Amino acid sequence: MGPVPSPICANKRKGADMKVLVTGATGFLGKYVIEELVEQGYEVRAFGRNQKAGQALQGPSVEFFAGDFSQEEDIFAACEGVDAVVHAGALSTIWGPWEQFYRANVLGTKRVLEACRHFGIKRLVYISSPSIYAAARDQLDIKETDAPKENELNFYIKSKLQAERVISQYPQVPSVILRPRGLFGIGDTSIFPRVLRLSQQFAIPLIKNGQQLMDMTCVENAALAVRLALEMPQAHGQVYNITNGEPHSFKDLLDQALEGLQVRKRYVKLPAGLLAFLAQSFESIYRFFRIKKEPPLTLYTYYLMRYSQTLDISAAVRDLGYRPRLTISEGIAKYVQNYRNN
Ligand SMILES: NC(=O)c1ccc[n+]([C@@H]2O[C@H](COP(=O)([O-])OP(=O)(O)OC[C@H]3O[C@@H](n4cnc5c(N)ncnc54)[C@H](OP(=O)(O)O)[C@@H]3O)[C@@H](O)[C@H]2O)c1
Fold this sequence. Notes:
The chain is α/β, with parallel strands linked by helices. The protein has a domain at about 20-190 and about 215-245 and about 310-325: NAD(P)-binding Rossmann-like Domain (Rossmann fold, 3-Layer(aba) Sandwich), CATH 3.40.50.720. Helix content is about 40%, strand content about 15%. The chain contains twelve helices and 15 strands. It has helices at about 30-40, 50-55, 70-80, 100-120, 155-170, 190-200, 220-230, 250-260, 270-290, 300-305, 315-320, 330-340, and strands at about 20-25, 45-50, 60-65, 85, 125, 140, 175-180, 185, 205, 215, 215-220, 240, 250, 265-270, 310. Strands 3-2-1-4-5-7-12 form a seven-stranded parallel sheet, with helices on both faces. The protein has a two-stranded parallel sheet with strand order 6-15. The longest helix is centred in the N-terminal third of the chain and has 22 residues, at about 100-120. The N and C termini lie far apart (about 50 Å). Mean pLDDT is about 95; it is low at about 1-5. The site of NADP nicotinamide-adenine-dinucleotide phosphate has 27 residues, from helix 1 and helix 4. This is NAD(P)-dependent oxidoreductase.
């Protein structure tokens, strides 16, 4: 890594005079990052392809810049005149052809880094994913250095690992990598909606009575970590796990969410071997017939249900001063309140 830069906004109101490009602005995390930055006085250039979602973000401190970050001209034009970049944009799903993951997550990240290097961007915060740790075993207190060199459980994971490697190939760009786990909150289109659907249409499968530990993150806390990663000089060149730091059992989380949502709790206890067999079979069939839709069960989802996985966030606490603002229960209550009001 290159020389350690000075804090990007020392001795000022946090974001005064700072302009930050946020990719993935039209997505789930991106919106919260923008909110967090604007609250602290930053100017934001919100980047994404979805014009409608982008225009809805615009405000006194937020301008929308429509573009595709895997297109050199788009991302170069967007980076001109900004001080820092948060690269939260990605193809963030667990099923699909490698070419799409490669283009969005690997090539796209390379283009972002080229633009950052060209314009001498003071800091890049890259949003990676702890899914890269996924393995067929319980893993507690995973440290950032425990990341495997390769993991091809799915193309998303493979692409996120490759993207991290791309970051290390640009030492001239002062970068920070964050690995936030299991984001949830209002606007989540993934975790809670899936659970709800499953519970309403069928039942939620439990292995070993759902006692496996899960380490989730309120999306507001992840957005806070992103801002801290932009601001803290000691974060330069580092990688940080981000969670709420309060692992709960799978079943406990489900109970809290489903009770709050007043949805009938429907669980079905299934043997791990059966679910592993189903996941493997679905994946093989879907791959063979090139089915674009995500299979009803994938190996990745099976691993999430089967094994405990918790992350050590002490590095983020120490270097970034990261202290989660919302507890898991508060995050769930907020989600539930919004769900009931809508
Ligand atoms: N959600 C989680 O639990 C979780 C956990 C760990 C890590 N992460 C990481 O956190 C980041 C944000 O995730 P998220 O949940 O907010 O995902 P998301 O809601 O799917 O948002 C991703 C955004 O990326 C944008 N994007 C994708 N390809 C693009 C391209 N070629 N050019 C421009 N924009 C592009 C999309 O914007 P347009 O539709 O406007 O193109 C989309 O809104 C991702 O890097 C993801 O890997 C997420």
